[in-house]
Amino acid sequence: MTYLTLAATQGAFKTVTVSERTAQAFADGSWILALVYILAAVGALGALVTVVGLVLIYAERKIAAHFQCRLGPMRVGWHGILQTVADAIKLLLKEDVIPERADKAMHLLAPFLSMMATVMILGVLPYSPILQIVDLNIGVLYVTAISGFGVMGILLGGWSSNNKWSMVGAMRAGAQIISYEISATLALLVVVLFSGSMSLAEIVQSQDAGWWVWRAHGVGLVAFIIFVIAVTAEINRTPFDIPEGESELAAGFHTEYSGLRFSFFFLAEFINMFVVSAMAITLFLGGWMPFHIGTGGAFNGAMDLIPPVLWFFGKTSAVVFLIMWFRWTFPRLRVDQLMYLEWKVLLPIGFVNLFAAAVVVLYNLYPFPIIVP
Amino acid sequence: MIGPAIYTVMFWVVAASTVLFALAVVNTRKLLRAAIALMAALSTTAGFYVMLDAQFLAGVQVLVYVGGIVVLIVFAIMLTRSGELLEDHPTPERRVVGAAISIMFLILSAAAVWVSPFAEYSTGKTPPNDALSIGKALLDPGPGGYVAPFEVISLLLLAAMIGGIVIARKTPPPNQPFTSGGDLPGETDVYTPLSQRDPKRGGPVS
């Protein structure tokens, strides 16, 4: 593992995805190995969804509790770590209620669409140089495109419930996600400009000499801030949680859902938080790259000893914590404030920032000194 | 042997599901279900592009059609509350016109496929499919470049966007540029000179 990390950070290590291994095994004629790779990938995705869901729900409750000087779940297991498991079992055993006048097929399809959009993105994230299921050469475009299915899931769930709160919640969610997607995409294009690639693995590799958040000369930092704000809105987290504002809309688009189908929506929401944090760190904070100061030295050597997977999950957890922190810091926005923020504040800044990034890249304007190892 | 076999099976699965979803679009009586079937048909079309090694086009197909067009259609259905609108008995004129248009479109599509030489694929080589060459082709002013259509489409989209904003915004009554945007009663309906207005309600003095 030491060899891997050292080689990876020196840019000498080639990333190998699971799909490449499968193709190789297939070409070599060893069917069983190819099948094992495919099953391992599917199993790993399922396990990741479960574990991330359990951990994030527990973390959310604990962090919320400690922000409010409470203890949070304490009874089930050591410091309540089995609380989420107990809740999950309870949810699975509950009756699955479908409203009588609902559009049944659509009502059943909606949570599935939401979940599908989330899981399809998990497959392209680079967790480490050797741990990525498939690396698409249109990675960034793929992630943006797939999130459209998530919007459809929410709209469909709200409509098919035949309930005015669900409906209003779904409309708000749809309008919000579509609006903020523009800002998120503009921020993401800045990184595409600098790295010259849309493949997520190559974007991570391009940050070998420094993370884009500070190596991109200011525009990277602006893009990172815009991206974090926009994705917080895209996943309907506070302060942008008006689609399910409980004081006005009961529970928004999933008011009429119960049991397993409710847990699908709920889980998709938490996994989405993981996905957007992972995207933020992959694009701006170096993905699985270790933290370096300058070049060489004992500090960088020590950082290299930490495996890339730990770097990835550590950085992702930091951004997830930031998003959870927002929830206990900012009050919920009104609908008009939400639209004002996107169309009159974030969007102009995003356009100017993208233009500035294009100028910097085109003319090699580097006002700040950069260290190239 | 096994590679092409899997490829063929995949093609037929994608093709059959596209046709089935397309049939569902025109056969269902519920508008929202038609929109969802349309979404599925457009997504499986992206499957064809992936199989033709045109991943960028597939990504754009999903981005534009699923994330844009279909969401817009669903919004329109939700806003008009016409989800229960069932068209059981269309008038004979509509049937005839609909059938004529469908048949004409079918003939046009079939003719287009029939006369296309498919020069790129008959030679066995695929055109470059990465974002770099697509971007260069889009902004290439020379022959074989697409800069003119690209700019025309940009202009069209800009015009549509401005048109949308003009239609959507609340128009102040004539000769009165600054109002509260129609929030006060009687303001947008009848123009009342400022001197004749009720200072409390904003509308005409009653």
Describe the structure.
- The complex is a heterodimer of chains A (373) and B (206).
- Chain A is mainly α and 373 residues long.
- Chain A has one domain (2-363).
- Chain A is 68% helix and 0% strand.
- Chain A has 15 helices and no strands.
- Chain A has helices at residues 2-9, 18-27, 31-67, 83-93, 104-122, 139-160, 164-195, 200-205, 212-215, 219-234, 246-249, 259-284, 297-304, 308-327, 335-363.
- In chain A, α4 (83-93) crosses α12.
- The longest helix of chain A has 37 residues, at 31-67.
- Chain A starts with a helix and ends in a 10-residue tail after the last helix.
- The model of chain A is unreliable at 1-12 (pLDDT under 50).
- Chain B has 206 residues and is mainly alpha-helical.
- Among the domains of chain B are: 1-85, NADH-ubiquinone/plastoquinone oxidoreductase chain 6, subunit NuoJ (Four Helix Bundle (Hemerythrin (Met), subunit A)); 130-171, no CATH class.
- Helices cover 64% and strands 0% of the residues of chain B.
- In chain B, α1 packs antiparallel against α2.
- The longest helix of chain B has 26 residues, at 2-27.
- Chain B is extended.
- Chain B starts with a helix and ends in a 38-residue tail after the last helix.
- Chain A binds chain B through residues 26, 103, 105-106, 109, 136-138, 141-142, 144-149, 151-152, 155-156, 159-160, 167, 170-171, 174, 178, 181, 198, and chain B through 3, 30, 32-33, 36, 39, 55-56, 58-60, 62-63, 66-68, 70-71, 74-75, 77-79, 83, 130-131.
Descriptive terms for the model:
heterodimer, A: 373 residues, mainly alpha, 0% strand, globular, disordered N terminus, B: mainly alpha
| Relative strand content of chain A | under 5%
Number of domains of chain A: 1
By CATH, the architecture of the domain at 1-85 in chain B is named Up-down Bundle
Distance between the termini of chain A: 23 Å
Radius of gyration of chain B: 26 Å
In terms of quaternary structure, the protein is: heterodimer
Q: How is the main sheet of chain A built? A: none
The CATH topology name of the domain at 1-85 in chain B reads: Four Helix Bundle (Hemerythrin (Met), subunit A)
* Share in β-strands of chain B: under 5%
Number of helices of chain A: 15
CATH class of the domain at 1-85 in chain B: Mainly Alpha
Largest pleated sheet of chain B? none
Number of alpha- plus pi-helical segments of chain B? 7
Largest interface comes to: A-B, 29 and 26 residues
